[in-house]
Amino acid sequence: MVLILSIPSVQTNLGNYATERLNQEFKTNINIEKVGLQFNGDVELKNIYVEDFKQDTLINIQELNTSILSFSNLMNGQLVFGDIDIMDLVFNIKTYKGYQETNLDVFVAKLEGDNPKEGEGSFLLSSSDVTIYNSTFRLLDENRETTKVLEFNDLNINATNFLINGSDVSTRINTLSFNDSRGVAVKNLMTNFKYTLSSMTFDKLEVKTENSVLKGNLKFYYKREDLQFFTDKVTLEASFKDSNVLMDELNTFYNEFGKNQHTKFSVNLSGTLNDLEAKNLELTTSTNTKVYGNIDFKNLFSKATNDFLMNGEFTNLTSTYKDLKALLPNVLGAAIPSSFDRLGKFKITGNSQITASKVDADIKMDTELGFVNSNLHITKINDIDNASYKGRIVLDTFNLGTFIEEPKVGQVSLDLDVNGHGFIAETIDTEIKGDIFQLNYNNYDYNKTQVSGKIRNKIFDGILLVNDENLKLKFNGLIDYSEVINKYDFEAEVDYADLNKLNFVKKDSISIFKSTVNMNMNSSSLDDAYGRITFRNTSYKNEHDTYNFKSFKIASRFQEKTRYVDIDSPDIIEGGINGEFAVRDIVKLLENSIGNIYTNYKPYAVADNQRINFNFKIYNKIIEVLYPEVELGKNTFIRGSIHSDANKFKLTFKSPQINLLDNFVKDIELQVDNSNPLFNTYVEVDSINTKYYNASKFSLINVTVNDTLFMRSEFSGGKRNNDKFNLSFYHTINKENNSVIGFKTSDVTVKDYKWYINGGDDKFNKISFTKDLSSIEIDRLNINHGKEEVTLSGFIKDSTEKDLKLKFKDVRLSKIIPDIDSLKLNGRVNGKLDILQQNGSYLPNSTVVVDNFKVNDFYLGDFNAKIIGNEDLTSYNVDVSIKDDIKQSFNAVGDIKVRGKSTSINVDLGFDRFNLSPLNPLLSGVLSNIRGDASGEATIVGDLKRPDIVGTLTLNGGGFTIPYLNVDYQFNDNVKVGLEQQSFLFSDVQLTDTKYNSKAELNGKLSHNNLSDWRLGLGLSTDRLLVLDTKAAEESLYYGTGFVGGTASIYGPTEELVISVVGETKKGTVFKIPLSDTESFGDNSFIHFITPEQKEAREKGEDFVLEDVEGLELDFDLDVTQDAELEIIINKETGHALKGRGVGGLLVEINTNGKFDMWGDFSVFEGVYNFAYGGLVQKQFIVQPGGTVAWEGDPLKAQINMLATYRTQTNPSPLLDNPINRSIPVELNITLNGDLERPVPSFDFEFPNANSTIKSELQYRLDSDAEKENQALYFLATGGSFQSRGSGELNVSGTIAERLNGIVNGIFTSEDGKINFGFNYEAGQNRPDYQTDDRVVATFQTQINDKVFFNGSVGVPVGGAGETQTVIAGDLEINFLLNEDGTLSAKVFNRENNIQSFGQNVGYTQGVGLSYNVDFDTFKELIRNLFKKNTEQQTIPKENNQAQETEALPSFISVKSSKKEG
């Protein structure tokens, strides 16, 4: 059977039979060329052709292999096959022009009959496995503009359970691959496929292409007649999850995606393609764009224009402008403003609706620049940069500067209503109104700003109100940048602007600006600006002062081609410029004018025919504001003219004075005239003062010859103007366009020695340098004085390379070094000094010899220094020595090595009786007379920047003086001084003062930083050491001799040395504090002088802390013992002083800058108060124990509480009504209270042994303080006499006459007081009611015997008008004691009358009297004393001297009794 069926003719007949049967039954045209039966039972069909109803190919199969499971079914039209293999299938589904159904629909309808129905039909085709190889599928529609809808080539399919049952088709597609004609290559497609007349289902769909994987479920719902309106009427439902798609491949179907965009997404889709809802969208792109939310798309595939709509409700849209534009360049690219590119990465939440013409955005956006909350309605988005908008914008900490590309603008927070159009500066035209809560501009945050106005096309017209704490501003007006000519028309009221805090002014720590600014100006540039700017009522305050400017006006105008710029401010500058010029060329014109003097100068290219005439009067106030370190004198002016033709340049500058920092220039005049044949420049300065050098009578003149500017200058210099300079030099520009300054023969006289520069007048002696001074070359600069010669040559390049060579020949060291206080160097210098610097490291190479080297005239020997480097400049050998005829006192031998940027040293030092006297200048002002010699060895090793110094020195004859304390100390011999790191170490060194031989032990160290910045850290311990030995000097705060026992430390840098002592005073201590009794006007407390720093601190409300003073600081914490004597000198001239011994505790702080503070208490044990009054009264008081002096800072403000007693014997009769015939003991007490500098004295008299009657009368006479004071002064002035009652008021004015009276009276007064004789000078009185002449009065007081007393005085007038007016006047009194106890006495007197009225003559009164004196306490006692004679002997107890002495001691001191008990 198989053999028969294998016969070709048989196969052909079978094929014809089968197809004819089908064609007859279903009215189709199906042709099978051959039908064959294989040996295995399979059927082989070849060249199967199915024709559609238009006689075109529907299906064409080259070969089909299958197995027929039931021939009976086959004969009945049911095609039930086993596995089917189809090769070279061509399947064309085509909709012909004017037809709605496809050719496949027509073909299936024929198979179904006249009444096809959905579901199972009479036609059945099934296969368990269908494999299709190398096939083609086409979907064509002649009703479309493009007929070809789909074309899949190289189609290969494997499907199982394939079933066509009537109109339904179902299968499991295991593999499906094809190449789409549009370029998409599907590598595999798997799905459970089902097709019906109303739906098409792809369950468990997985599509793989070269770059994509699509997973999910997809289903289409339709009516067959709607398939031709696929995008509008076919409904799809899809769910995709974890799909990864290259968007380029989707562009085959929807060409709106960007290139090279990979997306991973999950989404639920529903609706038609032109009304598509994407729910639960989670999309992430390869550029990290995230789109989470729900999006509705309308008219994605619409052919109509401008009907696209995207409505998105986003929960997270994270992307960048570029990423979004790249994802959907057409849909989103045109709808997002280009300025969004500067937002960086952003996250959007909210709703956004986008159509082809408008955008409604109610979104919140977190961006890299800040937070944005917008509710905008945007239209005309087809040109988004010019789109219209209306709504509200809120920005929170948004970096506006980056967004608008303005570097000075920073973050902003605002809330604005906007209405306008345009998103870029060139096209913006909008009204704005709202609040700017915070705006950072120029690194300052402005707060509380309101704005209302219109911004359009680079124009702002409106109101701006700023109420920031550092800026109070109201702006109202117009700023217009829209045209070529910019317009400024506004008024700005600046009520307060702190320009320092606003970061506009930094050189002033305080910068407060206030003004009203009016500007009406038009310009496209500075060259065509015209109009006026006015500043009114302007003030500027800095840390120096407040500057007020009433008016400042700048006006610019044109008259034809001539421009006039007038500046008018009587406080700032007055004058103007005029001419034809370009502002940008002014500096170039000036530089060309100056450089014109050189032939080879290359001028800047500038326009021709430019000219500038200028004339300004400059006021110092503006200079003080701009440059506070500069001060100009009055009448400073500058005028001149600048031209394109540089030969016409003229300049005149004149100022009476210029102060710059610590430099002062007086009477400077500068004239420049390029057309003057005699000179080009002339400079004259009266004097120049700097902190380095002073000069006077400076003059300079120059003239140009060919390409060289020759200059001559003369001036004097130095501290006393003894230096003379006579310089002749020139300046030119070489071929390299570098400046060259060369010297002709010149001379300089320094220290009375004349030195010549270029004495040979050769072509060398030049210095060339670049404009920025980065490179300097010196060509054999030679200076000589006789045979003494110094030569310098070499170069300097920036700060890292130098090669300088300095040579000396027979040069006196003292002639070439500057004067140094307390240091004088001398000797004769020969040799060289080479300074080589490479890569920032200095590499010296030198040999210098100083013969007869002297320091402060002390001969040290010959100084030799030799430094030699190796060939690669990495190692240097050092050999330095100082030697005299006997010894080599110092040597240093070793190496210095250079490794990159580090330099190390290893040098051995040797000392042999090296004299330390040259060290004195190092500690000048603190220590002096540093002496001794040192021997030993040391090594300097380590980093050259800070090496270690290790070794040991032996010091002999060492010592030093502390000038401030006037003490000199000597070290013991053979003192070992250790050297460690950078310190000198002292251990158990014996220290002896050279005057009193008191001793102490010294320990500690003396540190330094490379032999500079010396610092002490020494400690002393002593039982008794001299620490003060000074004499009285004018303005001395203290002086005396001081010995202490205890410990002391000397520490700190030498310029701020501190000596701190803790101990107690020792025997020999005498400390004196002089008080000044003068006061100058400046001492008054209502005048205070403060420094600028104090003023600045006061204005800031800060405390001003004084810097540590330089000098010596002394801190004494002392227990004062009775070994010390303290003396307070109240008046050095008169000897008025208080001194004594006692105990106490004192803290004393003193420094060399005038500080003298004391704290503590001093209790007096014994002392003397030398009282002096009026310059002539001088008596000695004994200070009573128990007095105190308390200090609380100022030594002159100490509180004193002290009692002193003056004891003597005198007759008190002048105060008694009844005189007595004897002297009695009198004690005058003076109590001092209050400030030590001005204590308040109070006087009191005591009469220890007087009887009660006399004592009572005397106390009555001395009852008032005034009377006590007058009698006390008279008492002291007369050596112990009282003033008689009724003799008038005592003149205690302190005249010389009073002092002379006391001196003369003292001469003629007997020691026992029985004869007192003296002369007094009494000043006359001249009052309207009373006139007396001056007169000399002789006084006489004597005790003739125990019963008779005589008192008298005779006065002779002095200075009368004539002899007729001379009247001798006098008083006489004789007292007679009539009984033994002196109670009964008689008196005879002659007394001058007091003048009662003007013109009354001098008169006298005589008289005789009898008196009886009785002492009584009660009336009974009076009767008894009058009538009864007291026969009882009065017993006077013997005074206990020891008790008195004991009572005189302080309460804390007791005395043992000498009485023996028993």
UniProtKB/TrEMBL annotation:
One of its GO terms (biological process) is protein secretion. It holds the Pfam family TamB. Keywords: Membrane, Transmembrane, Transmembrane helix. GO terms for cellular component: plasma membrane. It is found in: Membrane. InterPro entries: TamB_C (IPR007452). Residues 1433-1445 have a biased composition (Polar residues). It comes from the Bacteria. Residues 1433-1462 are annotated as: Disordered. The keyword Membrane applies. This is Translocation and assembly module TamB C-terminal domain-containing protein. It comes from Jejuia pallidilutea. The lineage of its organism: Bacteria, Pseudomonadati, Bacteroidota, Flavobacteriia, Flavobacteriales.
